[in-house]
TrEMBL record:
The gene is Mindy4b_0. It comes from Ramphastos sulfuratus. Its EC number is 3.4.19.12. GO terms for molecular function: cysteine-type deubiquitinase activity; K48-linked deubiquitinase activity. The keyword Protease applies. InterPro entries: MINDY-3/4_CD (IPR025257), MINY3/4 (IPR039785). This is Ubiquitin carboxyl-terminal hydrolase MINDY. GO terms for biological process: protein K48-linked deubiquitination; proteolysis.
Length: 108
């Protein structure tokens, strides 16, 4: 029998399959499960276990960013507009969110 704590996590956690590899996105803020106001600006941790990840990665998610703040001069198909798969996964839950890697080079 599975413990109730394992069936219902106390903090949000997502298992991700990205490009054939697996990773975990999670937050230590339990308010993300119960309070929609906590989804304005928050942090997610990403762990992949891959060699490319040399240090812990904390991502800052801003769900109320404005699309007009992006540089409109760039062609959307240019390499500068492509987003890492981790960011695209995050946007499946929070469409239009901006993701800051906080100084870490996107490695996935």
């Amino acid at each position: 029998q599975v413990c109730p704590g394992l069936r219902t996590p106390q903090v949000p956690i997502w298992l991700c399959s990205l490009c054939g590899r697996h990773g975990v996105l999670f937050s230590t803020d339990s308010l993300l499960l119960t309070c929609w106001r906590a989804e304005r600006v928050f942090h997610l941790h990403f762990y992949s276990g891959q060699q490319e990840q040399t240090k812990p990665t904390q991502l800052t998610i801003d769900t109320h960013s404005h699309h007009w703040e992006e540089d409109l001069r760039e062609d959307p198909s240019s390499p500068g507009k492509r987003h890492p798969p981790v960011e695209m996964v995050i946007r499946t839950k929070w469409a239009g969110a901006t993701v800051s890697w906080n100084g870490t080079d996107p490695f996935f």
